[in-house]
Amino acid sequence: MKRPVLCLSTVCAVFIVWTMFSVPWCSSHPLEGGTDSPQLRLVEEFDRFKLGFSWHNMSCAVCKAIFATLDIALLSDSNMERVARALGEACVRLHLAEAQVCREITELFRDDVIRALQESFLWPSEACAVLVGPTCGHFDIYAPWNVSLPRVPKPPVKPPTPPKPGSPQSRILFLTDIHWDAEYAEGSLVDCKMPLCCRNDSGRASWKHTGAGYWGTYGDCDLPLRTVENLLQNVAKSGPWDWVYWTGDIPAHNIWSQTRAQQLNELVTITRLIHKHLGPNVTVYPAVGNHESTPVNSFPPPFIHGNRSSRWLYDTMAEEWAPWLPKEALETIRRGGFYTVEVERGLRVVSLNMNFCARENYWLMVNSTDPAGQLQWLINILQESENKGEKVHIIGHIPPGLCLKSWSWNYYHIVNRYESTITGQFFGHTHVDEFQMFYDEDTLTRPLSVAFIAPSVTTYVNLNPGYRVYYMDGNYPGSSRMVLDHETFILNLTLANNQPSKPDPNPSWTLLYRASEAYGLSTLFPSDMDALIKVMKNDDHVFQRFWYLFHKGHVSKPCTDTCKTSLICLLHSGRYDLLTQCDVLHGDKHSVKKTMC
User: Fold this and answer.
1) Where is the Saposin B-type domain (predicted)?
2) Other beta carbons within 10 Å of 206
3) Helix 260-278 to helix 311-321 angle, to the nearest 10 degrees?
4) Which of 77, 203, 339, 375 is deepest in the core (most CB within 10 A)?
5) Which pairs from 333-342 meet CB under 8 Å and 24+ separation?
């Protein structure tokens, strides 16, 4: 049975703390091999008693003593090595993943996770508050916090109006979640035991099974480079483009075996391919995805220095993206992976590093209060734009409704305050075609903004490759700069891989749908998207069309009953605390939301 390890960084953090208590910290001898090691005996005890163990059986004094000792023990490199080895064995024995994945991922995550635990404020009273109870301490790692808004009155809100017929429009190419797999192998196993298949090490498909296709495969597989390049060749012919938004996630999902050199090679390769095919006259505005780093989701805030910082990644991004971005933008990229640029007179783009809001980013255990000061910086940019009469587009990878609660709440508050300035929000990450609504904070009934979430380039999981085109109110005085319409294009893998004798050497990327035609909308303003949700609630035919397009035209399971109500709830929820009210986050077996972390 295949075990998901997409979010093993979180599992690693939990297991590191758990396994440490069975390690004989006062001994300098290495762990004994075999099944008689104390770590594996502890695993067996957990297996035998299941839920019999409880931290609440421990006294507060003992708990704090353990964590105080642990704090000191983690300063020893030899102890870190022993923890990693025990962690890998525990992962294997609990069948969290294949043995190779368990051991490689614990080795990869070991240093960063332990360093984050060392520098966090979880020791010892916070940890014991979680494990023993609030009488033993106060847990405030993700405590509420607020950014400061300027004491400038919010301008009167003027509802947007559709542009006059014949008004200029901007045509924007949007790419996200490419996930190029350098080890993709045609004919390899599609249904392997590893978390990512269709690779050189997946094994060859037998006559009983269909092997990985030439252009890509439905399943737990990413894309070969030839498919990415074929996409870029096609979009180059489909121009002209006014500009491009590209919201990250370049590497494949083999998160247990990645190196910095590989991540940088993939960043450089894809960046240069985009530049090569789109040419020097098309500006690309990138954003940082959660897969760009290794370990995945590891994005230390700027107060982490040295080899564990993200400078190795940000510096390369600045170098490779320099043809598209001005010097000032490159400076903030090097500091924290975010930036702002004037796109045209009257329009500015802000590219956020959404890893600073991600619960999977274990560095936020150290301090989750507005990491890198990014939201306060955003407020300053928005206030300056409001003063100048600029409109602002925000791009990023992870949608704000999936962020940590306080970060998401503050972002929602900012969008409310600057609703007349922020005229577009564009994200990726989930790999499917959806959106999140923003409403007024007082009543949560007046729609005021939409976060559009575009489908992925990759097939992961069980999807057609795809990309998005946005049509914006264009460059003229008084333009709303809002989204008027969008199109989604796909590569139909069933057709591309299965010509009579061999794969199509020049496959077609075809229009899957145009939003205005599919849903009968004149514009895609917030009021239009809110009205669409209401229609989907009452008209199942419209909802099922949305569900088909949600998966880029390749649906494996129907969505009815709880699945439907959960998805509609998610569309309403641009803020995390609103999203938590959806059944999908309460263990519903028909969950439609699986974060592609």
Assistant:
1) 56-140
2) 8
3) 10
4) 339
5) 335/302, 335/372, 336/301, 336/302, 336/372, 336/374, 337/288, 337/299, 337/310, 337/313, 338/288, 338/372, 338/374, 338/377, 340/381, 341/285, 342/390
Beta-carbon count within 10 A of 502 CB? 9
Residue with tokens 């996409």: 231
Per CATH, the architecture of 171-184+222-586 is what? 4-Layer Sandwich (3.60)
> Is 429 annotated for ligand binding?
yes
Phi/psi zone of residue 107: left (φ > 0), alpha (ψ -120 to 50 degrees), beta?
alpha
Is the torsion defined by CA of 399, 401, 405, 406 positive or negative?
A: positive
Alpha-carbon gap, residue 438 to 401, rounded angstroms: 10
In angstroms, the Cα distances linking 340 to 179, 351, 370, 396 are 25, 6, 18, 12
Give the rounded percent of residues in the chain with a pLDDT score beyond 90: 68
177 among annotated binding-site residues: yes
Whether residue 380 is annotated as binding a ligand: the answer is no
pTM: 0.85
DSSP state of 220: S
In degrees rounded to 5, what are phi and psi of residue 142?
A: -110, 40
Query: Which residues in 347-361 are b (16+ Cβ under 10 Å) and which e?
Result: bbbbbbbbbbbbbbb
Chain centroid to Cα 383, Å, comes to 27
Domain locations along the chain: 4-132, 171-184+222-586
Identify the burial level of 562 via C-beta atoms within 10 angstroms of its C-beta, where 0-12 means exposed, 13-18 middle and 19 or more buried: middle
pLDDT tens across 552-596, in order?
999 878 899 999 999 999 999 999 888 888 854 444 444 445 444
CA torsion sign for 417, 421, 424, 425 is negative
- Three-state DSSP class for 264? helix
Q: In the chain, which stretches have pLDDT less than 50?
A: 1-56, 584-592, 594-597
Q: Which amino acid is at 547?
A: W
What is the distance between the terminal CA atoms of the chain, rounded to a whole angstrom? 21
Which residues on neighbouring strands pair with residue 450, listed in sequence order? 437
Q: What stretches of 235-345 adopt beta strand conformation (E)?
A: 243-246, 284-286, 339-344
